[in-house]
Amino acid sequence: MSTVQTRPRRLLPCLDGVPYDLMNQARQRGLFDKFHAPSRLLSPFPTMTNIALSAMLGGSIPLGYETIYFDRDARQLRGGVGKYVGRRTPDKMPSSYMDQLDYQEPLPFEFLVYVAPETVWRADMRRFHERFRNAPQDRDYFAFLKGTDGLLHIRGPERLKVALASLDRLLREIQAWCGLETEIVLFSDHGMAVQQNRRVHLQEHLRRCGFELARSLDDAGGHRAVLPAFGLIGFAALYCSAGTEPELAAALFPLEGIDFALYRDSSSSVIVKGARGAARIHRHENEGGLFYNYEVLEGDPLQLPSLMKRLREDSILTRDGYAPAAIWTDRTAAHIYPDALDNLYSSLQTIRVHHPADVLVSLLDGYYFGWSAFEYVVNLVATHGNAMQSSSTAFLMSTHRAFPEYVRADDARRLLRG
User: Fold this and answer.
1) What single-letter DSSP state applies at residue 217?
2) Are 368 and 234 within 8 A, CB to CB?
3) Closest to 232 (Cα-Cα) out of 386, 54, 56, 401
4) Best label site of 5, 223, 233, 273, fewest CB within 10 Å?
5) Is pLDDT above 90 for 91?
């Protein structure tokens, strides 16, 4: 049975990969002045479109982190560039959030956006505008605009400024055509670290450390690991034999460009290990709610000592070092690692993808990992994927409503869809 929409209609354009800081700068230049101030929308780690939008829109869980992924049931790599060949079919749709899209780019644009981003952006804008004007005027309209991601990846912020100015003009035209009663909610899926990037040579390093890189895992154990590689991104997902996770993580962090590695320590804790030290994140749940503990083992990989001191001074930490999850989120929303404990813990202990990694690696800003073939096509000047603030902080703003200063991805759906 269909339902009658009683609130104002919403137009919901999602701009792929536009960070909060660049949108805030655009508003300071006078763009999007009909909107309320943008909120910081905290994207889950790894900061990838399919993971972020499946959380923000309540879609099904993607199979893997990228188009090429490790299937834990088959114990081998799956997927590949075949996704971009032919037309978009159900097997090429990583999550059911795509069923909610009224507009998305044609399938070939998903690759061409990294070759000719300006051309794709202009074509995308024309198609989006035409489809929106021809759509039913009594329901919400959700559009995903991918051109911004390509512009930032290979052109940088100056070209994005031009694109945002054209989008501002288009949204003003749309608002004049459909009336002020139509609410426009503009947001992005994740941010971007905007700086020249260098490759992290993970494969060569792991081989030098005695690990065999393979396409599959068997029950023989030993120093074998699977390392899917596709897009040029700021994280890596590794799969290994049970029990070898600590050794694999320890081998990684001395490599230049590695920020830290994560792996499960128990059913209720994860280890964070990097060049700055090691720590354990514990989670505990009872009738009083959800609580986290940050146990420093050596050094301080997440740079939380001053926060821990304030929590103690405010008598928020329990005697065994736990504080409510909501407090941790609030106190770390603007941290170098936004929503630090819940975000990193949940990246391995909850199901963000169907086939989660044994070891997740977050790279420093300015470094990337991926399929070397793409390097012959793309000169990368910005990327995303890691757990740092630039990639983790998207934006959310509306012409009709003021949103909270910070919004977690899991809380965005009710604000977007109501």
Assistant:
1) -
2) yes
3) 386
4) 5
5) no
Residue 379 CB neighbours (<10 A): 11
pLDDT of residue 4: 53
Write the CA distances from 314 to 45, 310, 323, 357, integer angstroms.
29, 6, 11, 37
CA-based nearest residue to 145, from 176, 110, 99: 110
Distance of alpha carbon 344 from alpha carbon 338, whole angstroms:
10
Angstrom distance (rounded) from CA 302 to CA 279 = 8
Quick one: which of 241, 192, 196 has its CA closest to 75? Answer: 241
Residues 6+ apart with CB under 8 A from 328: 292, 339, 340, 341, 342
Residue 348 has a pLDDT of 96
Cα 113 from chain centroid (whole Å) = 18
What is the Cβ-side half-sphere exposure of residue 122, based on CA atoms within 13 angstroms? 5
Q: Is the peptide bond before 44 cis (omega within 30 degrees of 0)?
A: no
For residue 208, the model assigns a pLDDT of: 95
Identify which of 40, 56, 43, 35 has the alpha carbon closest to the alpha carbon of residue 402: 35
Would the pLDDT of 219 be above 90?
Answer: no
Tens-digit pLDDT profile for residues 321-358: 999 999 999 999 999 999 999 999 999 999 899 999 99
Provide the pairing of β-strand 367-368 with 198-199: parallel
Contact status, residue 46 vs residue 61, Cβ threshold 8 Å: no
> Do 138 and 174 meet the contact criterion of CB atoms below 8 Å apart?
no
